[in-house]
Predict the structure.
Amino acid sequence: MKNMHKVSDEDFDKLFQEKLYAYEAAPTEAVWKGIAGQLKTIKREGAFPILRLAAASLAGIIGLGIWLAANKEPIRLSGNPTKSPVIQKAENPMALAKPESRQETKSEPVKLNLKEKIATKEEKDIELVTKTKSAASKANVARVAVLNTDAGSKTSLVKQPEAVEKSLSVDRSETSEVPVLARVEEMPQEEEPIVRDKKIKSVGSLVNFVVGKIDKRKSKIIEFEDGDEGTKVSGLNLGLLKFKAKE
Amino acid sequence: MNLSRKVSVDDLLDGCRRAEPRTQELLYKMLASKMMGVCMRYAKDRFEAEDMLQIGFVKVFQKVGEFRSDGSFEGWIRRIMVNTAIEVYRKNQRMMSVVDIEEVFDVPQATFDMKGLEVRDLLNMIQQLSPGYRLIFNLYAIEGYSHKEIAEQLGISEGASKSQLSRARATLKEKLMKIEKQTRTANFVSVGPERVPFTMAVLPVKVD
């Protein structure tokens, strides 16, 4: 060994550098496939995550709403399926709702619904309306109509279109045998605008309210929570898949 | 590939900034072999090198918007590959491996006719180093980083960087000496057509 040239550290490093700095090696095809796949995933995940979540939530709520609406009749035990022909007859609700026809017996279902609407707003009128309703069902239809105008004459003209809609969606003829209490309970559920005024402070709470109406489970299909940083999803319940933020 | 040779790497910068898949693929094809060469030096084998290459190029395409044109685009990509290698090392090691004193050999200063050594052989020697030695030898000897830069990158002291480097060199020299011995023996014994491990064996040794 003594007869060999000494190599300094610098030269030693340089020899490696000269040989290896520009070293090239071809990678396999799998590497580009992996890169392209990763880039696609990143692009997909990065594209509007909030909008996608909102759209998915909305679709879920609408879907559930439609499903529950389709099954509404059997659930609402107070309904009288035999009266459905009455609804079908009211093909021209506006004609029934005309003020001049109020005294006629043919327009009786419309007027009674009008009464109910008023009754929900004015608690004192509830008993009166329901009583007159049962009375009307027996015989004195014309007289009931007159009584109704006492309670609702001011608002009847304005509220008639809504009342007509009610009469189409819910079967409530004067001959209905539904108990008074059951019917009074039902009304607030369907009067969405009234309750909406109380609770709606953000989009999240609006969705909570709507979901609360159609999903009676403890864990709703979706729940929003208003926090300091805005509204965020606090719970999901998609059957098998459940998520609940800590309280 | 002929088409890609006509386009320079810098020409692809704008397309990459717009995240155009075709431009990204073209850039990759132009630089894949070079960057694979870089990764091969930092990795223990080809599989680890390909993993580094993939991670590095994904970073390049993600961070291309941050590239400022004060240096070359290719140089910037190369630095990303080196940084990726450092990250992979850190992930694997968590901390610099402390080498036992017994492992370090005090190799006498000797000459090696390394011009006769093939690139592949030198690469194998580097790949056989322990991860810490390999990383520091690569950064200092081949990339040209200073000990200060290495210390900052790895979160170690400059002294630790220096001692790791000298140990890495010692290990490499020891490997070279072993190889030299083997080839000398093989040169005397073997006269057949078998490939001698290193061509240095057949070159004359300089005598004072």
Remarks:
- DSSP finds nine helices and no strands in chain B.
- Confidence is low (pLDDT under 50) at residues 98-104, 190-208 of chain B.
